[in-house]
Automatic annotation (TrEMBL):
InterPro entries: Aldolase_TIM, GH, Glyco_hydro_27, Glyco_hydro_b, Melibiase_C, REJ_dom. Belongs to the glycosyl hydrolase 27 family. Its EC number is 3.2.1.22. This is Alpha-galactosidase. Residues 480-510 form the REJ domain. It is found in: Secreted. One of its GO terms (molecular function) is alpha-galactosidase activity. It catalyses: Hydrolysis of terminal, non-reducing alpha-D-galactose residues in alpha-D-galactosides, including galactose oligosaccharides, galactomannans and galactolipids. GO terms for biological process: polysaccharide catabolic process. Keywords: Carbohydrate metabolism, Disulfide bond, Glycoprotein, Glycosidase, Hydrolase, Polysaccharide degradation, Secreted, Signal. It comes from the Eukaryota.
Amino acid sequence: MFTMRVPLSIISTACFIHAILALHNGLAVKPPMGWNPYNVFLCDTDESQYRAAAKDLVASALPSVGYNYFNLDCGWQGTNRTANGTFTWNTTRIPSGVPALGSYVHSLGLKFGVYSDAGYYSCDFVNGAAHWLGSLGHEAADAAAFTSWGADYLKYDNCYSVNETDFVDYNPPFNLEPHFTAMRDALSRTSRPVVYSVCEWGVQDPARWAPAVGNSWRISNDIGPPNSWDNVLRIINQVVPITGFAGPGAWNDLDLLEVGNAEMTVPEQKSHFSFWAAIKSPLLISTDLSRPSQDTLDILGNKRIIALNQDDLGKSISFQRRYTNDYDVWSGPLADGSTVALVLNWKNQSRSLTFNLSDVGFTSAKATDLWSGKDLGIIRNSYTTNISAHGPLVLRLSHTTPSPAPRFTYYPASASKNTLSGGASPRTANSSVTVVGDIGNGGTLTFTGVDGGSSGGSKLVSIDYINADYTMRNTDCSNCRNAFVSVNGGPAQQVQMPLSGQVSFTASSD
Ligand SMILES: *[C@@H]1O[C@H](CO)[C@@H](O)[C@H](O)[C@H]1NC(C)=O
Ligand SMILES: *[C@@H]1O[C@H](CO)[C@@H](O)[C@H](O)[C@H]1NC(C)=O
Ligand SMILES: *[C@@H]1O[C@H](CO)[C@@H](O)[C@H](O)[C@H]1NC(C)=O
Ligand SMILES: *[C@@H]1O[C@H](CO)[C@@H](O)[C@H](O)[C@H]1NC(C)=O
Ligand SMILES: *[C@@H]1O[C@H](CO)[C@@H](O)[C@H](O)[C@H]1NC(C)=O
Ligand SMILES: *[C@@H]1O[C@H](CO)[C@@H](O)[C@H](O)[C@H]1NC(C)=O
Ligand SMILES: *[C@@H]1O[C@H](CO)[C@@H](O)[C@H](O)[C@H]1NC(C)=O
Ligand SMILES: *[C@@H]1O[C@H](CO)[C@@H](O)[C@H](O)[C@H]1NC(C)=O
C-alpha cells in the first residue's frame, strides 16, 4: 500500500502561466452563439445559400435561445482589391454584394459576421489555390471596410501567414501574435463593436496571449472535415491545461459544432455539445438547417445545457479525472453556487456507470439531470445510471456537502533514490523544480521507498506531468500520452494523460 504524488515531465514546454490582460472591448461577455457554414458547405458558398441559411436559422427558432450571429466563412471573397485598396467579394457568388447581404441578415434580427485572414491570402479548400484576399498589411482598410458593411463579428484565420507560398504552417518560424494584434487595433479604431474571433489553430499557445487580443481563440486544428468522434476526443484532450484561461469576453474556442451532421451518433453529438457548452466555447451551429431532424433541434435547443454556456459566472469546467478507456469526469462552478458535473462515456457501448461524487469534491448533493431535466433528489456518495455509447451524463449539483480533500505525500520524480533507465533523464524546469523526461519508448522511471503502509491494498495516486506536444491530426492517443504504471513489479496499468496537467488513478499493490 502506498501514496505518492510525483512531478514527471515528458517534454518541457508548458503553458500554465495565467494571462492577466484581457481585451476588454465589452463584447462576448458570454460565449457567442450563432451559425457558420464551414462544417457543412466548406468554402463553397454563395449568396442564395447564405440567404436561405439565414432564413432557415430564423425558422428553426434557435435564435430565440441565443443563436444570434449569422457568420460567413471562406469562399465569398475576391482575389483582387479595388484600385484604392479596398477588400472585395466575388460578384458571381455574391451578386448583390456583402453590404446588402449584411443588411438582409440584420433585417432578420440577426447579427452579421464576416471572415478574413491574418496572412497574405485566406484559407480555402483547394490546397491554397484560390488565393482569396487576406488582410495582412491591410488591417486598417479592411477593418474599415468590414465595419462599413455592417459586420458585428470577425473570424480571423491563419493561412498563408508566413509567406505567399506557404499555405498552412503549423510551425511558423516567427511569433504570430502581431498579426492578430494588428487587426485588434484596427477594429478598435472603428466605431462599430465587432466580436473578434482569433483563429490561430492553437499553434503558438494562444491561451497565453490571446485573452488580451481576441474575444475567443481557437485552441486546436479544425474539428472537421471529416466529422468524427476522434476529432472531439482530440480537442477535449487539448483543452485540459488551459481551461483556467477562459473568462468573460475571452473564451477558449473549440471550433464549430458538428451537431446535425452525419457520422456522429446522437449520443456522441450530445457529448460534444455538452462539453462545448460547459467549457464555454462559442456555440456556432454548422449544419444545414433547411430540414433539421428533431434530434438536432433538441440537442441545439436544450435550454438547460445552453444555460451552462451562458452562465453569468463565465467559468469553464475543468478536468477532474480520467478512468482510462472508461469515462471522464469534469466539473466547474456556476453563478448560483451550484456545480456542473460532466461525465463522458469513452466506451462505445451503452452500459451502467457509477459516477463517484468524490471525484468532484462532494459526499452528497441535490442533483438534476440536465439532458432530461429530471430532478434526481439527493444523491449520496455516488450515482449509478445507464449511459449511452459515447454518451454524456450532465448533472447540476446544489446543496452540496464537501468531501475531505485527499492527503498526498509528495515524491519528486528526480529524487536521487529513484531509478532511471532506458534513456529517461532529469531536466531542470526552473530554478526550483527538476523533472524527469524521456520516459517512454524504453525509458522508465522507478520510484523507490514509497510509503505503501503496512497492510497493502489500493491507494489514490496523482501524477503531475508536462507533455504539451499537441497534434493537429488524430492518432491513437491524440493530444495525450499513455503511461504504464506497475506497483512492486506487478502488472502494468494503463494511465492515459491528456496534454498536460495532473492525473489521478487508483493503484493496487496486491
Ligand atoms: C488578381 O489576383 C490574382 C491572384 O492573387 C493575381 O494572379 C492577378 O494578377 C490579379 N489580377 C489583377 C488584374 O490584378
Ligand atoms: C474604394 O473604392 C470603393 C469602390 O471601388 C468604394 O466603395 C470605397 O468607398 C473606396 N474607399 C476609399 C477608402 O476611398
Ligand atoms: C467567383 O465565383 C465563381 C462561381 O463560384 C467561380 O467560378 C470563380 O472562379 C470565382 N472567382 C474568383 C476570382 O474566385
Ligand atoms: C515560405 O516559408 C516556408 C516555411 O518557412 C519556407 O520553407 C519557404 O522557403 C518560404 N518561401 C518563400 C518564397 O519565402
Ligand atoms: C462504435 O460502435 C459502432 C457499432 O459497433 C460502430 O459502427 C462505430 O464505428 C463505433 N464508433 C467508433 C468511434 O469506433
Ligand atoms: C468513491 O471514491 C472514494 C474516494 O476515492 C472511495 O473511497 C469510494 O470507494 C468510491 N466509491 C465508489 C462507489 O467507487
Ligand atoms: C439500466 O438498463 C437496464 C436494462 O434496460 C435496466 O434493467 C436497469 O434498471 C437500468 N438501470 C438504471 C439505473 O436505470
Ligand atoms: C517553478 O515551477 C513550479 C511548477 O510550475 C512553480 O510552482 C514555481 O513557482 C516555479 N518557480 C520559479 C522560481 O519559477
